[in-house]
Amino acid sequence: KNEVEQSPQNLTAQEGEFITINCSYSVGISALHWLQQHPGGGIVSLFMLSSGKKKHGRLIATINIQEKHSSLHITASHPRDSAVYICAASTSGTYKYIFGTGTRLKVLA
Amino acid sequence: DADVTQTPRNRITKTGKRIMLECSQTKGHDRMYWYRQDPGLGLRLIYYSFDVKDINKGEISDGYSVSRQAQAKFSLSLESAIPNQTALYFCATSEIPGGDQETQYFGPGTRLLVL
Questions:
Q1: CA angle in degrees (0–180, nearest 5) for B39-A2-A60
Q2: From the list A96, A98, A99, which residue is nearest B48 (CB)?
Q3: From CA A24, how far away is CA A71, in angstroms rounded?
Q4: Considering all CA atoms of chain B, what is the largest pairwise distance in Å, rounded to the nearest integer?
Q5: Shortest Cα distance from A42 to chain B (angstroms)?
Q6: Nearest-angstrom CA–CA distance, B103 and B91
Q7: Which of B31, B32, B60, B114 is deepest in the core (most CB within 10 A)?
Q8: Which of A44, A96, A99 lies closest to B42 in CB terms?
Q9: Is A43 within 8 Å of A36 (Cβ atoms)?
Q10: What is the nearest CA distance from A67 to chain B, expressed in angstroms?
């Protein structure tokens, strides 16, 4: 069992839909990160969470420390949101990242 | 200009050849990392360095070596490339642990094909 697991692996949505991507982890963490990988390959950091909820534009990230679970939500999805979304746990003590395998999102116009 | 750059961006090489992938950063970060990404797998850590005199193996260091020439430069070498090292390689940097400073910043990636 991977230490960081994401679901779903693939997701296709219609423009405007509300999207949720889930991440569960089994390790002790100092923070949970959500990353976006563009079709060209580049990776950017979207959120870093150690508790609660963060919002940036149409993106919302939440974390439940007790349940070891985080979600990334996209409201009013748009084709430009099409990307791979990666969850990563930075581990307590070492702060190294352990990555999920990613969720490939395709938003259709 | 990008804060974290990687050269080359694409490379095709043959089995047995030695190749070097280079990473440079202008962010002034002490910590640098090399990852590889394979289809269906998450990014995996090859090597990391917390300062110029500190080099550490990651989970998949066999077949790779690194050099931290300066705070801003971290190179990854494949001494004798093999086809299963075909992958997308990323360099990343971070500042210090704790709070937003532990966010890692990624380079654009190097796509390597070993024939």
A1: 80
A2: A96
A3: 9
A4: 43
A5: 5
A6: 13
A7: B32
A8: A99
A9: yes
A10: 21
- For residue A51, give Cα distances in angstroms to A6, A35, A99, B45, B99: 19, 17, 19, 25, 11
B111 touches A at CB < 8 Å:
yes
The pLDDT tens digits along chain A (109 residues) read: 689 999 999 999 999 999 999 999 998 888 899 999 998 878 999 999 989 999 999 999 999 999 999 999 999 999 999 999 999 998 777 768 899 999 999 999 9
Tokens coding A55: 């919002």
| Closest chain B C-alpha to A72 CA, distance in angstroms | 17
Residues of A in contact with B102 (CB under 8 A): 30-31, 48, 90, 95
Q: Which two tokens stand for residue B104?
A: 């890692």
